[in-house]
Write a structure and sequence with these properties.
The protein has seven helices and 13 strands. The chain is α/β, with parallel strands linked by helices. The strands form two sheets. Strands 1, 2, 3, 4, 11, 12 and 13 form a seven-stranded mixed beta sheet that branches. A hairpin with a 5-residue loop joins β9 and β10 (195-197). The radius of gyration is 19 Å and the shape is globular. Bound molecules: fe (ii) ion. Fe (ii) ion binds at residues 42, 70-72, 154, 179.
């Protein structure tokens, strides 16, 4: 029996394109060899906000064992109705309001079990309190079961992610950041043996604004707060990390970034020319307002 396990973690899966590229990777010869697979699914619905029961089932069928969330976990009202039926689907411990679901769980695949903890950042986010204030209690609970522990900190602030990682160094196997949808190139093993990356990145349409369709993003940037964003479509890229952990000590031995580009889909997610007149009109009316 191997003395180590490998954990594969996918960053935010965004919309149908994100689910499709994860499917392509996991069903291909390029599938990374991993004992346990976890994914952040707070953007996994077709619209790109929240997730539906069928999204969970679809991803479970691909061999993903556990799921984390974030600030959009309860974007869809229906989530409250089913999340408690899926003990492997987490929501952040410090979610801003009373909510259903669990903040940590044990995930088992074959003969391997790890604990997964989900937290929300406090800086530039709407969490109820700092993750630093809630993580020790969660670690104590999880630590009674195993020393193989993954923490997903869904946060905006790079500094906050690093601060939590060093605070947990030597007490968890992995601290990984999610939410900003861009994979950072700072993966490393901290001195105490915790694998860390500031952000795993997203599984999302490549030519998009961090997974979102162009039109509404530009409108919002120009002041139209009512423009509703949706997930983009087109050829996608999956971002993940693969971490090898010593089963006895719970310490990470190796971390590598994974970035997989979809082969079969085509680029149809380019900026729509039809969207541009709207953008220009908004910009022009703004200039008039300002007397420019
Ligand atoms: Fe998020």
């Amino acid at each position: 029996m191997s003395a180590t396990i490998k954990i594969l973690f996918f960053g935010d899966i965004v919309g149908q394109s994100g689910r499709r590229v994860v499917r392509e990777l996991l069903l291909s010869a390029h599938r990374p060899a991993a004992d346990i697979v976890i994914a952040n699914i707070e953007n996994a619905s077709d619209e790109g906000f929240g997730f539906r029961e069928e999204d969970i089932r679809e991803l479970q069928d691909l061999g993903i064992h556990g799921f984390t969330g974030g600030n959009h976990s309860f974007h869809l009202r229906t989530t409250n109705d089913f999340i408690d039926q899926y003990p492997m689907v987490l929501r952040p411990a410090n979610y801003p309001c009373e909510s259903a679901g669990r903040a940590w769980c044990m995930v088992t695949a074959g003969s391997t079990t790890i604990a997964v903890i989900n937290l929300l950042g406090h800086q530039h986010m709407q969490s109820s309190e700092s993750p630093l204030l809630v993580v020790d209690d969660l670690l104590e609970q999880a630590g009674r079961e195993t020393n193989l522990i993954l923490v997903d900190l869904h946060a905006t602030s790079t500094g906050e992610k690093a601060a939590l990682a060093y605070y947990l160094d030597g007490r968890t196997s992995i601290v990984c950041g999610t939410h900003t949808h861009v994979q950072t190139a700072d993966e490393r093993i901290l001195p105490g043996g915790t694998a860390f990356i500031t952000d795993v990145g997203a599984c999302a349409t490549m030519h998009s604004i961090i997974g979102m369709d162009f039109d509404a993003v530009y409108k919002r940037l120009l002041g139209d707060r009512q423009a509703s964003m949706k997930a983009a479509s087109g050829r996608s890229c999956a971002s993940a990390i693969l971490v090898e952990v010593d089963k006895t000590t719970g310490k990470a031995l190796h971390i590598e970034r994974i970035s997989y580009s979809e082969i079969e889909a085509s680029d149809n997610g380019a900026l729509s020319r039809e969207a541009l007149p709207t953008v220009y009109r908004l910009a022009a009316s703004r200039q008039c307002e300002q007397g420019g």
